[in-house]
Design goal:
This protein has 218 residues and is α/β, with parallel strands linked by helices. It has 2 domains: 4-162, Vaccinia Virus protein VP39 (Rossmann fold, 3-Layer(aba) Sandwich), CATH 3.40.50; 180-217. The chain has helices at 4-11, 28-35, 49-62, 92-100, 119-128, 162-167, 169-174, 177-196, 200-217; strands spanning 18-22, 42-46, 67-71, 82-90, 110-115, 131-141, 144-153. The longest helix has 20 residues, at 177-196. Bound molecules: S-adenosylmethionine. Residues 22-25, 45-48, 51, 73-74, 88-90, 94, 98, 114 line the site of S-adenosylmethionine. S-adenosylmethionine binds at residues 22-25, 45-48, 51, 73-74, 88-90, 94, 98, 114.
Length: 218
Amino acid sequence: MISERLKQISNFINDDHDVADIGSDHGLLLVLLSNRNFSHEVLGVENKIGPFSNLEKTVNKIAKNNFKCLLSDGLKDVKGNYKTIVIAGMGYSNLKNILNKDKNLKSREKFVIDCHTNQKEIRNLFYELGYKVEDEKVIFEDSIYYDVIKFEINNDNQTYNSLELKYGPLNIKRKDDIFIQRYNKQLYKVKNLCNSISNLERKKELELEIKELEEIIK
Ligand SMILES: C[S@@+](CC[C@H](N)C(=O)[O-])C[C@H]1O[C@@H](n2cnc3c(N)ncnc32)[C@H](O)[C@@H]1O
């Protein structure tokens, strides 16, 4: 069964650009795009031979001229016509490395990102590269919360405060059930921890975190 997380990533891909999926693994996202008859170019990229051979099999099975794959590192060989870039299932430092080495960054219009950690750093990194959050959604799957974020060029010079960078400007505004559930759980954990410790300095830090979480979910 294809995951809700991948379905959300696919939903964030518009039908108007060539798309490159960096770190495609088995190419399941490509299958979703093929199933919806995506008509632009789709490129799956893998830098390891094992996952690449799975990706190649998937692309051969899809058997459409606009679906291709590449054994390469990050965005190194991904031409400027690929204006939508997907990077999912990687850590923050790998993501940052891939972006920093992209010679065609100026041509990229949209990024769909699903990194499992460092959400504040990710939003800040894209902000500094000239992008803003176009859409975002929290997905709960296999007992893990995933942040799927879609970035677009920041034409109107949108700025963010620290809470918006950490929790997501649209998440805070919309307060979806899954978002509220996630931080209610976190609040419960932090409160329990705060009540159980005696170190005053740590207690103060936790009290600040409680205040922040209460602010976010109210
Ligand atoms: C955990 S999998 C995620 C697969 C898929 N994107 C998903 O979200 O389900 C990460 C994949 O990224 C690939 N990868 C890691 N660094 C990469 C890089 N610099 N260039 C291309 N692929 C990379 C790995 O080989 C691995 O197959």
